[in-house]
């Protein structure tokens, strides 16, 4: 009977490590919050967008694009990472956004090496 204990332990360890792997896979950088918020209606143009992720991100391999309703790309400054909070990207707007609807398309590389992307929109009155 004692011989059976070891394979069972091995099987338990295998299951445990497989679930660790799948947890790591779930730890991609998901967008947790953003300013302006998704579907927000702003009284005036924000000066910058901020996007806060569930994981730290690599700014050099991350991009954030702002498009108007004619799919024209709005001019933004370089995407910066918050110096203290490495899970936050700051996108300065070089010119105020005119009234209209905007779509934000983001692509990020998290420090665990995984890429994620998504989009949301907001509008300016
Ligand atoms: Cu990941």
Short description:
With 125 residues, this protein is an alpha+beta fold. The protein has 1 helix and 8 strands; from the N terminus they run αββββββββ. The protein has a single domain, classed as Immunoglobulin-like (Sandwich).
Molecular structure report:
- The protein has 125 residues and is α+β, with helices and mostly antiparallel strands.
- The protein has one domain: Sandwich (Immunoglobulin-like), CATH 2.60.40.1220.
- It has one helix and eight strands.
- The strands form two sheets. The protein has a four-stranded antiparallel beta sheet, with no helix packed on it.
- Strand 7 and strand 8 form a beta hairpin.
- The model has no long low-confidence stretch (mean pLDDT 88).
- The structure holds copper (II) ion.
- The site of copper (II) ion has 5 residues, from loops.
Write the layout of secondary structure elements.
Blueprint (H helix, E strand, L loop, with lengths): L1 H25 L4 E5 L5 E2 L5 E6 L9 E6 L11 E2 L6 E5 L7 E10 L5 E10 L1
Parallel strand pairs: 2-8
Antiparallel strand pairs: 1-3, 3-6, 4-7, 5-6, 7-8
The structure holds copper (II) ion.
């Amino acid at each position: 009977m004692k011989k059976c204990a070891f394979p069972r332990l091995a099987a338990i360890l295998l299951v445990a490590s497989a679930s660790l792997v799948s947890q790591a896979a779930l730890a991609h950088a998901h967008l947790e919050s953003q300013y302006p918020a998704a579907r927000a209606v702003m009284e005036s143009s924000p000066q910058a967008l901020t996007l806060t992720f569930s994981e730290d991100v690599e700014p050099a391999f991350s991009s954030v694009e702002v498009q108007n309703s004619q799919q024209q790309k709005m001019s933004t400054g370089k995407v910066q990472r918050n110096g203290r909070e490495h899970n936050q990207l700051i996108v300065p707007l070089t010119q105020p956004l005119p009234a209209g609807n905007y779509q934000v398309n983001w692509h990020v590389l998290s420090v665990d090496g995984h890429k994620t992307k998504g989009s949301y929109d907001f509008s300016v009155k």
